[in-house]
């Protein structure tokens, strides 16, 4: 009799534990805000640096990254291109076939600015620009944006779907 009660008690505890695990794993976590780091499950449409929100086009494939903003005539204000790389590294950028100046902002995996190239000019090609620190992302935006918005190395960047 004692063994049956003990066995039944253990079964009930296991069942309740399993139930609690299942219930809590399906609870949607509350976000502090809409901005979050990149994951495989979310798409980035905006970047926020300080108080400024930037609509971004993504460059995730080698072909998109090789082309970048080359051949375009310009960018609409507060828009840019975000390059998302598979690995963390020191990515070099140049101004091949560019028709307008841009700011290039290298961003670490933990979403901090690690390097800024202000006002990169089309005439600078074939010079390339390379940070001394590894990055996971690079944002290309209209020239003057970084200075106008007082961006500096160390600023936190947020991504949003």
Query: Radius of gyration, rounded?
Result: 23 Å
Structural class: alpha+beta
**Name of the CATH homologous superfamily:** Protein of unknown function DUF192
Beta-strand content: 25-35%
Individual helix count: 3
What is the CATH architecture annotation? Sandwich
Mean pLDDT, all residues: 84
User: Kindly, what is the distance between the CA atoms of the first and last residues, rounded to a whole number of angstroms?
Assistant: 59 Å
Overall body shape: elongated
Number of strands: 9
Protein described:
The chain is an alpha+beta fold and 161 residues long. It has a single domain (46-160), classed as Protein of unknown function DUF192 (Jelly Rolls), CATH 2.60.120.1140. The protein contains three helices and nine strands, in the order H-E-E-H-E-E-E-E-E-E-H-E. The chain has helices at 2-25, 62-67, 145-148; strands spanning 46-49, 52-59, 79-89, 93-94, 102-107, 113-120, 128-129, 135-142, 157-160. It has a seven-stranded mixed sheet. The longest helix is centred in the first third of the chain and has 24 residues, at 2-25. 25% of the residues are buried. Residues 22-41 have low confidence and may be disordered.
């Amino acid at each position: 009799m004692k063994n049956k009660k003990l066995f039944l008690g253990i079964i009930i505890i296991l069942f309740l534990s399993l139930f609690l695990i299942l219930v809590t794993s399906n609870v949607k976590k509350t976000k502090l805000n809409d901005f979050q780091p990149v994951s495989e499950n979310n798409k980035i449409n905006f970047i926020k640096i300080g108080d400024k929100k930037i609509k971004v086009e993504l460059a995730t494939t080698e072909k998109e990254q090789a082309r970048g903003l080359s051949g375009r005539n310009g960018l609409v204000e507060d828009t840019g291109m975000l390059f998302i790389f598979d690995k963390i590294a020191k990515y070099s950028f140049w101004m091949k076939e560019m028709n307008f100046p841009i700011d290039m902002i290298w961003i670490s995996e933990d979403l901090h600015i690690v390097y800024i190239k202000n006002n990169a000019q089309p005439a600078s090609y074939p010079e390339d620009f390379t940070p001394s620190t590894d990055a996971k992302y690079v944002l290309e935006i209209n020239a003057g944006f970084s200075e106008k918005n007082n961006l500096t190395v160390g600023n936190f960047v947020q991504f949003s779907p």
